[in-house]
Write a structure and sequence with these properties.
With about 250 residues, the protein is mainly beta. The protein has four helices and 14 strands. The strands form three sheets. A six-stranded mixed beta sheet has the order 5-8-3-2-10-13, with no helix packed on it. About 5% of the residues have low confidence.
Length: about 250
């Protein structure tokens, strides 16, 4: 009906390739330093208000599994996330997700975007020119009643393919703007390029010294995969992989 009202060709609004990262209308800015934005969740909270979602989003995040790919050039090539959610109210039908590049650059070529694969479809999206943070709205396949549990799967990819090759120490981290029961990150390295000195760093709440509990421990590779996990994360908590590439210690 919208296509009829807008006089567009049949299928245009559904099938056309509407690139969300072009045009100034898709960008919104913040004056805060990128590190502060990520610690305190300014942009995420602003997006919740802008999109009309409650602070808790109407859902409880039970668990998330993030499987990351590092290619043969030591480049971050994307990830696949599976999230388990429980509805806190009747009629919950969406959730916000946030991604950002470790490069903290204003260059839109290095922005990472989330695309739902199952359990939800893409709604609105916001991209911060200042920090490169992308906030995406996922609309569930069907509204949930209070207590209902669902899972959604989505991919995160750099808009222009694998990012620049990593050197020295590199990292991948996952944070949650809301409490989450279990957070697991699997980093899959190319068998041709395996790192050394892998470490897990877990914070129950990043950026809040009075509340944060930090944990650091060495990780061993299982084949070409390293796994890190955190439980009972509060708002702003996260899990991070840090690793060093051969030759960097010389």
């Amino acid at each position: 009906m919208l296509e009829v009202i807008l006089a567009t060709p049949p299928g245009y609004l559904v099938d056309a390739d509407h690139v969300p990262l072009t045009g100034s209308s898709q960008w919104w800015t913040t004056t805060s330093d990128p590190a502060i934005v990520l610690q305190h969740g300014e942009e995420f909270l602003a997006a919740q208000k802008d999109f009309g979602l409650p602070v808790a989003g109407g859902v409880k995040r039970l668990a998330i599994l993030d499987v990351v790919r590092i290619d043969e050039n030591r480049s971050w090539a994307g990830s696949t996330c599976t999230m388990m959610l429980e509805a806190l109210d009747d009629g919950v039908d969406r959730i916000l997700t946030s991604t950002f590049s470790d490069l903290f650059t204003e260059d839109s070529r290095y922005v990472r975007v989330s695309e739902p694969q199952s359990g939800a479809r893409l709604g609105r999206r916001r991209v911060s020119r200042t920090s490169g943070q992308t906030i995406s709205e996922f609309v569930f396949d069907a509204p949930l009643d209070k207590g209902d549990i669902t899972t959604i799967e989505f991919t995160v990819t750099p808009v222009n393919g694998p990012e620049p090759p990593q050197t020295g120490q590199a990292c991948h981290q996952l944070r949650s703007a809301s409490p989450i029961g279990q957070m697991t990150i699997c980093v899959d390295f190319s068998p041709e390029q395996l790192p050394i000195l892998i470490e897990q760093r877990t914070s129950t709440r990043m950026g809040d010294p009075e509340y944060t509990k930090h944990e650091r421990r060495r990780l061993a590779l299982c084949g070409n995969r390293a796994v890190a996990q955190g439980t009972n994360m509060v708002s702003g908590g996260g899990v991070a992989h840090f690793w060093t590439w051969p030759g960097a210690e010389q």
